[in-house]
């Protein structure tokens, strides 16, 4: 959208200053010349992908695969939109999350073709595998299954892979830092708070405020 502004010089002559910019509504829109209508085949592919998204659970591999199909085949152009804008307007998905789902779907396809079973159930389980790349996905997933008796949660996948790192294109085991032990101060604070909370059950609001002040004083 273009706008013009007139300014008059000391001599009385008039100059036209042009400015251009995009509104929020226009952000991500493709120009009319750049938009190529979808073919009948593309419309069918888009329809199937969007139906899969409608039926899938948020964070499921199926949604990631459907988004990958839409993105790789430029099917999002149907409304003159960019892919990020399509995801936001059509599905209320942020750009980062949409690409995260696609990345997980790509790793899932690699795992599926490798024959390893059982396969991950959702993006959350695959998320920690993505940074290692598709090349090492199968071997690392086997390690995860081995450590979790074939029933890993997303948190267990993250924990199982914490001992591995991608270094110069190779997977290497790394030493994990030991968990820090609670300090005497933190243990003292925990005991004090626990004891005080038990007392709160039968205290008035005024006495609760007084107890909190006592805690602050003791921690100084």
* Poorly predicted regions: 1-25
Beta content: 5-15%
Overall residue-averaged pLDDT value: 80
Head-to-tail CA distance between termini: 60 Å
**Molecular shape:** extended
Instruction: Output the strand order for the largest sheet.
Output: 1-2
Please write out the topology:
Blueprint: E1 2-8, E2 14-20, H1 40-55, H2 61-72, H3 83-91, H4 95-114, H5 123-126, H6 137-147, H7 154-161, E3 164-167, E4 170-173, H8 184-200, H9 205-219
Antiparallel strand pairs: 1-2, 3-4
Would you mind describing this structure in some detail?
Helix 2 packs across helix 4, helix 6 packs across helix 7 (154-161) and helix 8 (184-200) runs antiparallel to helix 9. The strands form two sheets. This protein has a two-stranded antiparallel ribbon with strand order 1-2. A two-stranded antiparallel ribbon has the order 3-4. It has helices at 40-55, 61-72, 83-91, 95-114, 123-126, 137-147, 154-161, 184-200, 205-219, and strands spanning 2-8, 14-20, 164-167, 170-173. It has nine helices and four strands; from the N terminus they run E-E-H-H-H-H-H-H-H-E-E-H-H. Residues 1-25 have low confidence and may be disordered. The protein has a domain at 24-162. The protein is mainly alpha-helical. The longest helix is centred in the middle third of the chain and has 20 residues, at 95-114. It is extended.
